[in-house]
Every structure is written in C-alpha cells, then in structure tokens.
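User: Um, any thoughts?
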Amino acid sequence: TLQAKCCPLPHLSVPLSPEVNGPGGGSYFYIKGEEQGEIQGIRVFVGVLGLIKGIQLRFGSHWSPRYGAPGGRAEEFLLQEGERVTAVHGSARACVWHLRWITSRGREAAFGHPAGLQLLTVNGQHQLFCLSAIGFKWGSPKKGRVSHLPF
C-alpha cells in the first residue's frame, strides 16, 4: 500500500529516494509548474489492465507535459475553487496500479485497478509500459515551506 499524507509513514518500505516510493526503475520525472500556482487538476492515464501509465497536472489553466509510458485512457479530476489535495493513497508492485486522491473538501478520485499539507507537485520514474515509482511534494506555496515526504 502506498500513502502520502502530511506525516512520514515508517511502515512503508523500499523508497528509491526521500521523494519517491515504489519498485522504481526507468526514467525519472518531476512535474514542474508549482511556480505557476496551485494544482487545479489531475489527469491520470490508465492502461487496459488497470496499470497507471502516465500522469499530468494542471497548474492554473495550463496542463503540464504528460509523463509516463505511452497509451492509456485519460481520466481527469478537476479541483474546485479553493480545494486542495490533502492525501494520496495507492498501491504498487512492479508498477503503480492504483492512486486515490483526497481533497480538503472530502472529495475523492480513484484511478487504476481495484489532512495535512497540500500537494504541490508530483515526481517519479517510468518504464516503457507504466509508471514504476511516484512521489509527492507537499507544502504551502503561500508560505514557501515545503516538505519532501515519502509515502
């Protein structure tokens, strides 16, 4: 089980670095855009077997480039005015299989098979067929304090 919240979860194992979790391997990515404003949307690309194949974030009115493996069906979760992502849960084996995003308003969005700081951006690694690791940067852009917490 993968989790990302405001606090470290020591029972989760095998972080590749302090910023990502999952089995890893493949090409590293970091979604830039936090300087353009807060996250307004999440677009996840899900393959036919339910694998998480790619990801994009929307900062303001602009979508980031897509990161991950080619293919997959795009699924979007748009945040409402003033809403923030406050937790992310998921699961991974060789690839990331499931991500569930929870907001400050209690809304949830789940992608794939089967209270704290706000999400600033996402980073990770991808292989030919899927995302192989994913990490989350948490903090408060208004105060400039950012924490890198593994999940």
User: Anything to note?
Assistant: Residues 5-18, 144-151 have pLDDT under 50 and may be disordered. The chain has no helices and 15 strands. The chain has one domain: 2-148. Residues 24 and 84 are 27 Å apart (CA to CA).
